[in-house]
Hints:
alpha/beta; two-stranded parallel sheet; 8 helices
Amino acid sequence: MTLLYIALVTLMAACGSTGHSSSPETPTEQTTATVNHSQFDGNGAYEFTRQQCEFGPRVPGTPAHAKCAEWLTSVLRPLCDTVILQTGTVQTAKSGKLGIKNIIGVINPDANERLLLLAHWDTRPWADNDPDPANHDKPVMGANDGASGVGVLLQLAKQLRSDSTSLGVDILLVDAEDMGINDDEDSWALGTQYWAQHPHVAGYKPLFGILLDMVGASDATFPREYFSMQYAGGFVDAVWSCAAGDHFTNTQGGAITDDHIFINRAGIPCIDIIDLRSNSETGFCSVWHTVHDTMDGISAPTLGEVGQTLLNVITELEK
């Protein structure tokens, strides 16, 4: 058996293979993993989310974006063994060539078994889904769509530094995810596409990857995203079996063009934990790509459930 297969079977067996079962409208009763694990601090993740929003919208090419990149690097530096600032140039669909900054925090660089955790840290330049057309050219704050996933990963790095881990963990904060336009799949996730072509380690092959996107709403629903199941269904099963709260459901979610698509195409199995709504016209929460995606909609308990799920996964992979 391959190391990848052994890790997957071990993870599923340890957490329990059934996971949570519910519809998006009827959350399931919370269950817990069958092993002892650290308690994830959702309030800490909330604070890291809030601090990102203090910079304003983090639109690539703006002063707020540059300042936030410096801050993210400064936060990760004492929490990781190595921090890499990857710069590059990408071609956007609407704004021409654009400089980007991917930020990678490496924990236990010499460990052979590695887990990739990622989220995008940029925000959309245009609130083009806002109900008020006057807001369509305004930037999005991105408290949920961007900052929430990063907030969870920063708090996770903080706790792994305190608790220590034998697993290799790579935290990838990708840029220019939200510069895309409809009907052009390759116009999205530009930072991830760049990283996939220029990985921070030659021949980089973690066990698998987990993407966090829009993970902070109080009424979030995390079904099994379609492409995650197509590319890496066994890892969806494994992670959902470790799910720490009511927001994870065993329902089938929609197909989303997100960073995980390009990670999978690079040969790394990767799944997406993303808030999808079956009863929404857009398939997302009501503040998606609007000026109303602010800290008012962020829930520390939801962030805590997502972070605890990641800790549960890491705990099992360490064994």
